[in-house]
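Researcher: I'm preparing a figure for a lab meeting and need a structural model of a single chain. I don't have an experimental structure, so a prediction will have to do for now. The sequence is pasted below. Please return the structure as tokens so I can convert it later.
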Amino acid sequence: MTTIELNNLSIKNYLAELNIHPVKDRGYYGMYHSPFRTDNNASFKVDYQKNLWIDFGSNEGGTMIDLVMRLDNSTVKEAINKLECKYADMQTGSNPNNQSEPFSFHGNNHLEKAENNQQSGISILKIIPITNQALLDYLTERKINIDIAKQHCDEVHYSANNKSYFAIGFKNDAEGYTLRNKYAKVCTASDITTHQKADTNTEACLVFEGFMDYLSYLTMKNIQHSKVDVVVLNSISNLSKAIDFITSHQKVYTYLDNDEAGRNATLQINKYSRTHNCIHIDKSADYANYKDLNEWLCKTQKVEQAQKIEQQRKPSRGFKM
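Model: Understood. Here is the structure written out token by token.
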């Protein structure tokens, strides 16, 4: 989708999907409590006709892309990628002329037809185990255990806008992929990813916003797989698809981002949990000073590495007689 098309997406609908609704709705504009700060006066205005927003309290405003940047504290590129992924079903795409039919190679040594997702404008060319050094370096940079990542992800080569790319691919329940590398985050089809231990196992469920947070959790615990059920939303907008499964468990542990969207989703899960006699434990407090679980992992490991280096530099005092 072009920038113009993304900015034409309804801001009102986007906020509603985040469970943010107007306090006053005048038909052609609405007044909201600001999603960026404590706001008792509902000084955040959305002009439905112009599809623009303004926060009178902070003197900020702009388009849909500007809103996503402000909500997620992200760059323009990150905001565009998020919107393109979220609204993938509104996009169209086609293969380059005379391009051969794509195939994928999987770790079980057989070839099969790869997904050719016309809706997202992305054609998957091949799927292989993660071997590309750039992707391995990216995982190392994010402090993710490589062996754990290889258990849950693939190396996906794909084309978009007649150009070829490669990324770490995390599969979802719709047989699509969230694709991520150092420079981009896109998806072929937006859906949740569930790892269910058994149909009768309702003891506990872990909920993550993105797969990097899920891999971070496994890395920190030094385990290949979770011992209980897991839901990776892949996008906060997918929460409605997962909420019934999440709250069917006796306990729910949420590891969502410490931003407005993550906090709203956490509150929504807490609300549903109470009505379903489910105990909700919000784990975001453990990394309250960080954006998400992966950022906490990265900063924690950097501190530990620095301490080890400093310890190695200290001269030995030898033995005292």
